[in-house]
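Collaborator request log, item 7. Partner lab (contact: R.S.) asked for a structural prediction of E3 ubiquitin-protein ligase TRAF7 to inform their binding assays.
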Amino acid sequence: MPAIDKVSTEKHEGDIVCIASYGDQIFTGGADGKIKIWDKDLNLVKSVDAHESYIYALAVNSKGKLYSSSCDGCVKFMQPPYDKVEELLRCDDVIQSMYCEGDVLFTGDDKGVVSNWENDKMIFKYNLVEEVKSLAAEKGWIYTVRDLDMVISEIVQGKSGKYVTKAVLPGKSPLCLVTSTDDGRHKYIAVADRTGKGFFIASNSMADKFKVLIEQQDCHEMIINAICTDDTHLYTGGYDNKVKGWSDLSQGKLKALGEVDTGSCVNALCCCANNKAVYIACSDGLVRRANFL
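Returned to partner:
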């Protein structure tokens, strides 16, 4: 039976807004402007005063460099052992989403601009028009979503800031790339549907015309805030205080693994590479660990 087997003994002041992992460490960003670092058993390793206010997003690159964005207009970063906060960017825009493809950072803001960074230098900006609430990127494709549509854009190589739209699917934030493949492109895209209470899984392939393969309608009683994957299983969580697990993605259908009740609104989820648990960021400031297997 799925169960919550660990709850952090310490907490953020207010909501935990975002969560990420690297190795055996879990990172949380909160409305208090703090980044907290936990071990896999949710013992607090370190608490860092990273921002002056609400943290919107976290992203970790392949070397463990941790990026954070906040409503103070800053993107900052820390490198292992996470004892020094450095500033990457200060601006007037609200950077709500970030994603690391290897060591390349992508940021998305409330004006619809996606920027990519290499070696902490901005390379290009792409004006995708609509506010970017959730973001992913790989192999020259950028995936963005707000409240009505998930858009897949292809970067035009050698053309500064140019892109072409490859597909538009009806859906809303959040989104998640699912199931790695040998060629470096994920096999599926998971996205909340327009109602927010369900989600769908689409093929991540132009040859398949990004066909919707699975629709899981009304699977939550309230809006889904978070989707994450460990590559073979999918997890969803939302305002109904529930986290639900799903498996058998490769079979063209989903098997429900059950659910856990957190007792608090689920704001974000992540999986840890070194175990089969899902980590849950909640509005009561606590982190929870759940096992579905």
